[in-house]
Design brief:
This protein is α+β, with helices and mostly antiparallel strands. It has 13 helices and 12 strands. The strands form 3 sheets. It has a 5-stranded antiparallel beta sheet with strand order 4-5-8-6-7.
Length: about 325
């Protein structure tokens, strides 16, 4: 049985208090809300904070509101609440779908939107218990110096496996980060980094305090997820697509792939060829072919990586057809 290591738990009562505690304890501390990612990682000794700062009882961080064309969500709102909130389902249906596809009903009631956005990158060689990893020699993501996926690589190729991240990027969301020195807002596309170890632009002393997503009228959106089983499993491919069509002409389109790299892969530039034209299946197939070429999944998650790459074409075509045709 895997057991948690000893640690000190501090329940913050405000965002300012949590930020102050992070600054005080420094790299020894991490924040937690649902704990569905952090606590299993701690049991496997992948993350080893000696102080855990709880955010669950901070007022306002679990709030969802729609004001002036923006849906604003707190980071500790549960994935179940995101999937079922009337404002999210009406204005951001792709986000509701993505949140509703995470893991299982039990874990969605514990897991949070902020936690899913900040989800640790995953890898077959990393997501094992301590003794398994020690037996083959640790990887560079934790305690070692080699990437077992690409042994000659100088970087870690662990995969971004968040369901909600591709949607937030596709919808041009903004994330508010708060520290003891103040707050800053970053575009969702700049929040994620294509690096299996340094995968977020959030500093260790910062807390994700708000997620803000515009909800302009006239957009259609969807999220498609590929995984081995119909529940529980992390995505091995995610496709978020959004488009606005006016008078039969594509005015704007966005396309983001998840779980094929260390960060969500924005393919909106490839999809831009559809703008200014009437949507056609031939045009969608051309975009899907380009996304197929760009997708480079590695052998570090479930199922065969060559097949997963082929599925990128299938799922992009499916997602774009849903929002355009």
């Amino acid at each position: 049985m895997l057991r948690l290591p000893q640690f000190e738990y501090v329940a913050a009562r405000s965002v300012d208090e949590a930020a102050t505690l992070l600054a005080e304890y420094g790299p020894r501390a991490m924040v937690v809300a649902g704990g569905t990612d952090l606590y299993p990682n701690m049991k496997r000794r992948q993350q080893e904070p000696s102080v855990v700062i709880g955010l669950r009882h901070v007022p306002g961080l679990a709030r969802v509101e729609s004001v002036d064309g923006v849906v604003r969500m707190g980071p500790t709102v549960s994935l179940h609440a995101v999937a079922n909130h009337p404002a999210v389902r009406e204005k951001l249906p792709a986000l509701a779908t993505a949140a509703g596809l995470v893991s299982t009903p039990h874990l969605r009631r514990m897991g949070t939107l902020g936690g899913n956005l900040c989800l640790d990158t995953r890898c077959t060689y990393y997501d094992q218990n301590y003794h398994w990893r020690k037996s083959i020699d640790f990887c560079m993501k934790k305690d070692g110096a080699i990437c077992w996926v690409a042994p000659n690589s100088r970087r870690c190729w662990a995969v971004s496996s968040s369901d909600t991240a591709p949607v937030i990027v596709a919808l041009d969301g903004r994330l508010v980060l708060t520290s003891a020195s103040g707050s800053r807002t970053v575009h969702a596309g700049d929040f994620f980094r294509d690096d299996g170890i340094d995968y977020l632009s959030r500093r260790p002393d910062e807390i994700l305090s708000s997620i803000e997503v515009p909800s302009p009228a006239g957009w259609r959106m969807t999220y498609e997820k590929l995984r081995r089983r119909g529940s529980f499993d992390f995505p091995i491919l995610g496709v978020a697509a959004a488009a606005r069509v006016q008078d039969g002409i594509v005015e704007d389109v966005r396309l983001v792939l998840g779980a094929v790299g260390s960060a969500p892969m924005d393919q909106s530039a490839a999809a831009a060829r559809l703008i200014g034209e009437a949507p056609t299946l031939e045009g969608i197939k051309a975009v899907a072919a380009e996304a197929y070429r760009a997708a480079r999944p590695l052998d570090n998650t479930d199922l065969n990586y060559a097949w997963r790459k082929r599925m990128a074409r299938v799922y992009v075509e499916r997602a774009l057809s849903h929002v355009l045709l």
